[in-house]
Amino acid sequence: MKGRDRAALESLRRYTRYNVLFSMIAVASVLLLSEVRDQPSPLRLAGLAAGLVLVGLGHWRWTVRSIDRPAGRMPWWQAVAFTAVAGGLLVVAFTTVGNGAVWALAAGLIGHDLLVGRFPEAGWRFAAGFAALMGVVVTVTMLVTGEDAVLQQVVLVFWLTLVMTGAEVVLLRQWTLTLELEKARLDAAELATTKERLRLAEDLHDILGHALEVVSLKSELASRLSEVDPERSRAELTEVQRLARGAVHDVRALVQGRRSTELAIELAGARGLLESAGIRWQFTGDPARLGAEASQLLGRVLREAVTNLLRHADATHCLVRLEIRRDRAVLHVRNDGVAPMREDGREGSGLRGLTRRITEAGGEFSAEAHGNAFEVRAEVPR
Length: 382
Known about the structure:
The chain is α+β, with helices and mostly antiparallel strands. The chain folds into 2 domains: 3-188, no CATH class; 279-382, Histidine kinase-like ATPase, C-terminal domain (Heat Shock Protein 90). It is built from 10 helices and 5 strands; from the N terminus they run ααααααααβαββαββ. It has helices spanning 3-36, 42-65, 76-96, 100-118, 123-145, 150-228, 230-255, 263-276, 292-312, 349-360; strands at 280-284, 317-324, 328-335, 364-370, 373-381. It starts with a helix and ends with a strand. One of its GO terms (molecular function) is protein dimerization activity. One of its GO terms (cellular component) is membrane. Pfam families: HisKA_3. InterPro entries: HATPase_C_sf, Sensor_HK_TwoCompSys, Sig_transdc_His_kin_sub3_dim/P.
């Protein structure tokens, strides 16, 4: 159990203990004071007090312990004991006590415990059993006393039972709904945090994967040119430094929420990288006609496609085509060097992240080989 759930449960236990204790004191005070007024014998007063103690202990045991026990799991022997005590109190109250209607409070309390304790799994059975008990009590009492007034007291018992049961069910239901809403709120917060972490991981993959791949490419090129063309070798090393600083800047911008991946910016970077790698480049389309969100999404697609091309494919030509339709934009990135799949046949994390992002934006994404070519296609709302 999580800490917040444990604290909520302990709060419910504390509230229930106080509630049960105060209700027991109130009921016992009313009942005993009603008897003291009539100056009963000490023996009868002691017997009635003992009955109240039994009722109170049973009510305390069931109500407090029911917090940790699923509904509908009240032990059968407790139900039998409760019923027996209720019947005994009613018979005694209706036959020997002048104010039996007041003692209906105790019987109603026990009836409440029976119904709430067994509801909903077997509530109707105990409701029927309680009704049968009332019928037996009425019959026995009428045979002993010959009074019809006892029916009024039995009706009072029923009403007290229903009122207390209804109030308890409403309170418990409100508490349950409160806990469920709080749990849903916390789960939503955790989900949002997880999604943000996933987004950050994907962005870091895009930034560092792209930057490291280009640094590796240009470092190798500078090494090869160091003897045949030292001037260009120094230029490539200078470019490596610039790329490394750019990656650091992008990571900082990502953390601060200022990083941009607009398609126009990514096109300029992709062109320079591909030309440095000796790959012919061709682009058609007008990125200025894109909306801000579409431009950001397609910029990510182009960056990932170029990174994978440099890392995996043996390409000599790359064609990038942007199609603007009425309310959709489609980006095609096609190269003539098929990028191999992973050994397990699955897409890399970058492609999976793009698929998720574009799908969430209402678009479509695919990355497939067509003969000797490999094409990345992304369609997003314009």
